[in-house]
Structures are given as structure tokens and as C-alpha cells.
Sequence to fold (204 residues):
Amino acid sequence: MIAIIDFGMGNLGSIQNMLIRMGYEAKITSDLDTISNSSKLILPGVGAFDKAMSNLKNKGLIPTLNHLVFEKKVPILGICLGMQLLSNRSEEGVLDGLGWIDSETLLFKFDVNENLRIPHMGWNTIRIQKDSCLFHDMFDEPRFYFVHSFYVKCNHNDDILAMTDYGFAFVSSMNRDNIYGVQFHPEKSHKFGMKILKNFAELC
Fold:
């Protein structure tokens, strides 16, 4: 079973609905026993970094997630804010992130004459940087739906799975061992997003 971790942030139902339509057992839960007995984990999120970290801490989820991810090597996929939570910290707040992938979450900053809006919102293409189960047999010219004002900067190039251009090149997917992150929303990205979730469920 795939556990979609409910810590009070994000549109969890659309992720669950897509997985169920694809034939996978998926449950939205904050129950520690249910999470501990799941074969895969998804950490979604929409909203503020500090609020998300506070919610994870207050629900007692962080020790269990650390155990599952680092000791039992359960695959986990962070989506949007969920990917940013994998980083060390965020310019959005003052609390530490999970620190699972050595990276920082930074605010998009553009000159006025660049005429680029924040948040970065809408469809955009990605450039896959290396082979990964997450992008196995991906469609040509993969494009995904983004909504975010902050982006992740990896401190090690080996952790970068995909890049996207919005004013400059930023990390749109990252991975270290059994930990995966995507800045975009696969649940809103039609066949491209379905392929990501299928690969995560079956191959990663």
C-alpha cells in the first residue's frame, strides 16, 4: 500500500484518486502504524514551509519517517512543498527542514524587466539529467504542471534528476537513494504525471 502522509497541508485527494484510478492501493493517513506498514510513502504539500514542519513535528511523524526512510529504506516521494521539506532549510521560514537531501529552498527573485511572475505557475517542460526509475520510459518532451514561489538548489549535482527553466535553470526533481522529490504536481499533469506515479509505485 502507498501511504499519502496527511500532515494538514495540500490537496491529498487528487493524488489518491489518480493512484486508485491507476489500480494502486493508496490511503491518506497520519496514523503511525499504517504509515509504518506501507510499502511506499508520498509526502505532498501546499503552503508555508514552517507550518508544514511544525505540523509534521506536532503529529509525531518525523521520528517514524526518519526510521522508515533511513533504516528500512522505504521509498518516499516528496511533491511540491513536500520536495522542499526534504531540504536543509527554506528562505520562507526559520525552521530546519528534514535535511534528507543536502539542498536549500530559495525564493524566486527576478528583475522587473524580466517580466516573470511569481509564483511560477502553469505547464513547463523538464530536462532529465540522468537515468532514474522515476523517469523510466518517459514520454518525449515531458511537461508538468507547476505552482510554486520557491525552488530547491541541490548542493551536489549527483542528486539532481531534472531541471526546468524559469528565468534560470532550477531543480525540478531530485533523488538520493530511496528519497525522491518533484517540484511539479504529477496529479495535475495528465499522462506525464501518471507515468511518474506509475514508475514510483512499480519501479522505485
